[in-house]
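[AMINO ACID CHAIN]
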Amino acid sequence: MFLSYSSYMLIFFCNQIGASKHVLSEDTVSRELKSGKLVSKRILTKTNNIPNWAKRFINTTYVYIVEESIVDAKNKILVTYTRNIGFTKVMSVTEKVTYTQCDVNPSKTVATRYAWIDSQVRGFSRAICAFGYERFKKNAHKMVGGFNHVLQNMYPHQHVIQTGYVTATAATKLKDAAKNASELAKAAPMYASLHPN
């Protein structure tokens, strides 16, 4: 991923990740070089369908999101942190995605995705966290598709990963992570992760 990216291409890539139909607006708050790393912060307004039961707690379909990204071109690492800043008492979701060069095949990129999900709604927090986890699994599939779409636009003649393979692997690993999380903490926040191997 970093072999042929210029700083302009990395900024373009970071901006394209959020460019989809469910993103209503995006504003760059800051973008600067810190210790040789490109650090960006953006505010996004996103929309998403909510189930009928959630309308009891939330009366709108959009939420504000903070996205922070750190591009370390020297070490070939891109890290994004995304968290909601609205409705955090109902459900707080913090997501971290790390893009690194593949150890086995340096021409490929590995994306590792983590999510921390919490709810402070008394009596419903476990169900809300479980819903957030299921949404995380569903969005893992979309993330791969969006990532491939951006790369396909940047490099139209390159081969991209087939979404079905990655999703099947991701679903299995997420299911195992949920089972472990359930056993470890019955009333605590949920944590989920997606590892490439």
User: Anything to note?
Assistant: The helical segments are 7-17, 125-154, 163-184. DSSP finds three helices and seven strands in the chain.
